[in-house]
Queue: 2 jobs
Job 1
Amino acid sequence: MATSLNIQGTVIPYEERKNSRSKRLSLRIGRDKVRVTAPCKATKREIREFVEANQDWILAHWVKIQEELLNIPKRQYQDGEALSVLGQSLELKIMKTNQKTMRLRYLKEEKKIEIRLPEGIALENQNEATREILGQWLKRKAREVFQTKLDQVSAQMGVSYKAFRLKEQKTRWGSCSSKGNINLNWRVILAPEQVIDYLIIHELAHLKHMNHSPSFWDVVGQYCSDYDVCRHWLKVNGDRLTL
Ligand SMILES: [Zn+2]
């Protein structure tokens, strides 16, 4: 059932779901709606009272998420702009040269990414070209960083995966198949390092438990004590992790 809530004048899209596996009422504040999941036996009245009892909390979280969404700065790909990679802020240095090809150099010590564009490039193509070359570089970087981490962490956890592939997906950060193939979304390279570590631990933990059961989270927790902070970070900031 899809409808909306009105909490102190703020209209919030609302959805109710019954789930035979849920034992109690639960609430989830998403980016586009608030969802209540109820056990099958829950009455309309119980659900209404539950929502009413939690309305201050719902409103506060809804407003916070909406504000965060509005604050996503649009990238301009201009000289001097900052890009966060592995949690480190790097400055884009964009310059024109008389060479015909584009080039990107990562200046590690100076924390800069230098991008050289051909002089003759039309203004309207400049942003797209910069985005393109940055994307290629970030994917290479992601492949290298993820691979290294997968090897280190899998050894620590005593698991072995079969293959690793870099993916580009809108909403999925990673996955692990029953055959032991791990996919990771390159966009996570734009997240802080602890979030990347969490994701890698999460996918490798699936080699021990192919589900999200309490035993699965126990394994994750052994190697990543602040996993809930990282999960939350991804939920809230995932949309920013893009070029
Ligand atoms: Zn999972």
Job 2
Amino acid sequence: MARRLALITGASSGIGAAFAREYARQGWDVALVARREDKLKELASELEEKHGAKTLVIAADLADPGAPQAIVDKVAKAGRQIDALVNNAGAGQPGHFCDTEWADQARFLELMVTSYLKLMHLTAPGMAQRGFGRIINISSVSALVPTAKAHTRYSGTIYPGIKSLLIKASEALGAELRDQGVHVTVVAPGYTWSEFHDVNGARETVNNVPDYWMLKAEDVAAAGYDAVERGVPLRVPGAFYKFMTALARILPDPLARALMARQEKTIEGK
Ligand SMILES: NC(=O)c1ccc[n+]([C@@H]2O[C@H](COP(=O)([O-])OP(=O)(O)OC[C@H]3O[C@@H](n4cnc5c(N)ncnc54)[C@H](OP(=O)(O)O)[C@@H]3O)[C@@H](O)[C@H]2O)c1
């Protein structure tokens, strides 16, 4: 059987690069998407050499509304079909909502929501038709716990809402495609070592969080791969975050908010 192809967005660093390594290690070919082509080419060479994976490098800005279609077209032009999609690309939108330009919020939504939905819309029908497909969307623990200003100051006021939408959309699409061999999983990581907090200016604040809060990108990717293969709709990687999100589900809302306020002090280094 020909090797299957996984398309991974945001593959030039962090969680996306870790997913690319995980898929290649598991015997898949990979299509790597991000803006920094040099980083993608470096990773492609590594994966070809180490795992014999065939790679496609696709430089694209996913805040551009035309990007998802152009990406899918490039894969088709290379004579390949997308068997797995990892929607992962992302960045924060720091600053108070009221002080930001709408144009910036609109680009944020395009990157963090529309590109994810559009890529699913473009790839899921083919997967369903062929009776095999895997879709992973990267959400965040921030969608599953009460909202704290310490989180949204750097990632963006609408970040937890965006990540919540991904959870609901993934669960619903997963239910629609369950009988057609397409597994849809949403992964909700907590704080993870990557470039994310350097890009959004939160590195100094994140240095205040205890080590046991920090996840490794490769562990997030391994958890996501395992979950989608097993057909698990939602996976929260790491024991600490499993406990925290379970607690948030069962505690009365005021108590969960009070706990979050205490955590916020830790994040702020108080
Ligand atoms: N790190 C955390 O603590 C954490 C926690 C929960 C959820 N997440 C989520 O995990 C995902 C991956 O983040 P990460 O932690 O791995 O951060 P990262 O190391 O900064 O990686 C982000 C990736 O997204 C790509 N990207 C950013 N803007 C893009 C654009 N306009 N077009 C195309 N690609 C773009 C970046 O590549 P280029 O710059 O080369 O384009 C990079 O490959 C994000 O969706 C994030 O919200 C992260």
